[in-house]
Amino acid sequence: MTITTRQIGPCFAAEVEGLDLRKPLSPDEVAAVHAGMDEHAVLVFRDQRIDDAEQLAFSRSLGELEHAIGTSLRAPDEYRLPTTFADVSNLDQHHQVFARDDRRRLFAIGNRLWHSDSSFKAIPAKYSLLHARSIPSRGGNTEFADMRAAYDALDDETKTEVEDLICEHSQIFSRQQLGFTDFTDEERARFAPVRQRLVRTHPSTGRKSLYLSSHAGGILGWPVPEARAFLRDLVEHATQRQFVYAHRWRVGDLVMWDNRRTMHRARPFPVHEPRDMRRTTLVGTPTVAQVTATS
Predict the structure, then answer these.
(1) Using one digit for the tens of pLDDT, what is the confidence trace for 116-160?
(2) What does DSSP assign to residue 53?
(3) Of 29, 82, 11, 14, which is closest to residue 53 (Cα–Cα)?
(4) How distant is the alpha carbon of residue 124 from its chain centre?
(5) What's the confidence (pLDDT) of residue 295?
(6) Would the N or C end of the chain have less CB density within 10 A of its end CB?
(7) pLDDT value at 83 more than 80
C-alpha cells in the first residue's frame, strides 16, 4: 500500500495511511516517515494495535533510542516499564492509578505545561513516539505547537534578539511553576540545569524554529526576572491557536513528533481513571556545549 499523509493541523501535523506498524519497515518506508516528519513535524498513525516489542522495533528503525533513566520521581524498583520506554501513564508498578496526592503524580502534572521532551538533558530528544493503550472517558488530549511557524511570525527585531541566546533548562524550573518544590538533594543534583540554544535550525530543511519549553528557566547573561518574563512572552506567542493542533486520542493511536520543532502539553482528565500511554524517544543532537560552571 502506498504511504499517504493528510494534513490535519492548522499549519502542520498530518495523519499517515498505508503503514502497519506491526510489520518491519522497508528502507523506502523509513525514508517516507522521515520525509513526513520533515514536512509536518507531527505524524498520527491511527488504529495501530501494537505491543511493546513492535513499538520498540518501529522506533529503532528510525533512530537510536533514548533510555528513560532518572527523568521522573519513580524509583528503579517502582518502574512499570523497561527504561526503553518513558512511562507517562498515571499508573504505578502494580498498574494501579496513583493517589491524588502521590508525589510521582504531582511531579508528572508538569507535563500539562508546554514543553519539549528531554530539553533538560545535555543531549535532548529528537522524535517522541507515544502510543495509547488505554484512555480516560474524557479529557487527556495532547496539544502540539508548531515552533517553526511561531519563529516565522516573529518580527525582525525579535528574530535578531533571540538568534544567539542560550537558555538553562531543568525539570526543577518547570515544576516550580506549579508550586512543586518537594525535591530531595539527590533529585536536585540529578536535575541540574543544562544549556540549550533558543533558536534551532533543522539539518534537512534549513528552517529555523524556536526551542522553548517550560523547563527553560533562565537566559545566560540576563537577570532571572527579565529572562523568565521574556520566555513567557515567547511561549504565549508560540502557542496561539493558529499554531496549535489538538489531538483527541483513540486507543491504538501512535503519535510521533519532532521535539526540535514543536512543543506539546497534556490536558487534564479524571483523576481516578487510568491513562496508559507509552513513549519511546529517539536521541537527538546537542544544541550547545555544556559547562560545569553556571553563569
Answers:
(1) 999 999 999 999 999 999 999 999 999 999 999 999 999 999 999
(2) H
(3) 82
(4) 10
(5) 42
(6) N
(7) yes
Q: How many CA atoms lie within 13 A of 95 on its CB side?
A: 3
d(CA 201, CA 160): 14
Q: Which three cell numbers stand for residue 109?
A: 502534572
Structure pTM?
0.96
Using one digit for the tens of pLDDT, what is the confidence trace for 12-43? 999 999 999 999 999 999 999 999 999 999 99
Phi, psi (rounded to 5 degrees) for 31? -60, -35
Could you write out the DSSP letters of every residue in 229-249?
A: HHHHHHHHHHTSGGGEEEE--
Its domain, for residue 261, covers: 4-283
Task: Please name the amino acid found at residue 191.
Answer: F
> Is residue 289 assigned to a domain?
no
CATH of residue 232: 3.60.130.10
Q: Copy the grid coordinates of residue 34.
A: 522521515
Write down the residue that cell numbers 500539562 correspond to: 112
